[in-house]
Each structure stands twice: as C-alpha cells, then as structure tokens.
Amino acid sequence: MENQPSVKTIDMLSLWPARILALILILVIVSTLPVKTEADSFRCSGKIIRSGDSSADLRQKCGEPRSKDRGSESVRIQGVQKEVRVERWHYKKSSRSLGRIVMIYKGRVVAIETGGR
Q1: Domain for residue 3, yes or no?
Q2: Domain that residue 47 falls in
C-alpha cells in the first residue's frame, strides 16, 4: 500500500496560497495608509530638540516657528496619556524637508510629530 496523504492534509495544504495572499494583501494595505508619526526628538540647526525641553530652549535652537496654533491633543505627560490643550509650533526647513509640529504644554515640549512635505 502506498503512503498517500490523508484528505485532511490535502485540504490544509490547499489553503496555504490563500492565506499567503491574504497576508500580502493586508501588508500592502497597511503600508499604504497615511501615517502621522511621533518622535521623541529631532535635529534643528545641528542641535537636538527632545520631549521635556523648555519652549525657550526650542526657540533658542530653532528660532521662531513658521506658525503657531492651539488645540486639544492626546499626549503622554509623565507616563500618562492625557487630552490637554497645547500650543502647536510648526517648523519646516525647506519645501523639500519634512515638517515638524512641536506640542508645547505648560512651557515644555511634550510631543513632536513629523508631518508631510
């Protein structure tokens, strides 16, 4: 008698191409979604800006922002995620560089977002 795979084994093997295709499709969809990233730091005129720096240090290292606005943001403060009113300082070196939005809460940098070009 020959060793033939059972019907159950054949059914499991026939599902692999569909599973791989589904995984590839999910990865493609996720990788093409627009992303707003947060960073703990960024370089400005050769100097590093980090969460926790004062707004005075930010202004000294990067100069005046292109624009400022205010709004509510969910940010991490002392390890706890909170919804607070912040000042958003917008920086962009050139039309070819990524923009940075620095969130200021009570005179301190609490978050840095990297925006689009």
Answers
A1: no
A2: 37-114
Instruction: State the sign of the Cα–Cα–Cα–Cα dihedral 52, 53, 58, 62.
Output: negative
Structure confidence at residue 29 as a pLDDT band (50, 70, 90): confident
CATH number of the domain enclosing 46: 3.30.1450
State the total domains in the chain. Answer: 1
Question: Is 17 among the domain residues?
Answer: no
* Residue 27, in any domain of the structure: no
Helix (H, G, I), strand (E, B) or coil at 31: helix
Contacting residues for 73 by C-beta, under 8 A, at least 6 apart: 83, 84, 86, 88, 103, 111
- Nearest of 99, 14, 109 to residue 54 by alpha carbon: 109
What is the per-residue pLDDT across 97-110, written as a single tens digit (0 to 9) for each?
788 899 999 999 99
What is the rounded CA–CA span in Å between residue 82 and residue 77? Answer: 7
